[in-house]
Design brief:
Blueprint lengths: L11 H23 L2 H8 L3 H7 L3 H26 L5 H15 L3 H14 L3 H22 L3 H20 L7 H7 L6
Helix pairs in contact: 1-2, 1-4, 1-6, 2-3, 4-5, 4-6, 4-7, 5-8, 6-7
Length: 188
């Protein structure tokens, strides 16, 4: 008779992380309105009731995913600022911009940002999560770079333009309009 090891149960926090990672992929693929909590539960290998135990409703699950993506973006910007080849606002912003361009090659991060912005139009809790996320990012960029208001605005505007270029595949099209939009932009 072979000895069976006792089954090690996941902690609630481990399950929460599993659900969050699973939900990130599901929401990235189908958006806020196109994703159900039952799909997330099935993909995570747990019951829908357990998903609701961890996240009382779909809105809270989605906003947790949105917040998770903002944390990833912030971490990427922090690493870039720390590794920047200088301390001038221009050098730090360029390093952070390059890091962001690399980060959004992970389509899930970019898609969550795009889906969150779309859902923010009609979903107040999502709108507030997006606002909080951008507020923290703007303040981080301001403090880390020492940039002017205009430089910070341009940094974020370029990020939004990156979303447009990457999401439409504009960098794969050789046309005057795509050259205009992507001039001076780097995509990975």
């Amino acid at each position: 008779m072979k000895s069976e090891r006792p089954r090690q149960l996941s902690t609630a926090e481990e399950r929460r992380e599993t659900v969050l990672r699973t939900a990130l992929g599901a929401f990235a693929a189908r958006g806020y309105w196109g994703t159900t909590t039952s799909e997330v539960a099935k993909a995570a290998g747990i019951s829908q009731a357990y998903v609701y135990r961890l996240f009382p409703n779909k809105e809270l699950l989605f906003t947790a995913v949105v917040e998770h993506c903002f944390v990833q973006v912030r971490a990427g910007l922090e690493r870039a600022a720390a590794d920047a080849g200088g301390s001038s606002p221009e050098v730090v912003l360029k390093a952070m911009g390059d890091a962001y361009a690399r980060l959004i090659t992970d389509n899930d991060v970019m898609l969550i940002q795009l889906h969150a912005q779309a859902a923010a139009v009609s979903e107040p809790a999502v709108r507030e999560a997006v606002r909080r996320g951008y507020a923290r990012l703007v303040e981080y960029v301001r403090g880390a770079s020492g940039a002017t208001e205009a430089q910070i605005q341009e940094f974020f505007a370029r990020g939004m333009l990156c979303h447009l270029i990457v999401s439409t595949g504009a960098d794969e099209v050789d046309a005057p309009w795509t050259r205009t939009l992507s001039a001076g932009m780097r995509h990975y």
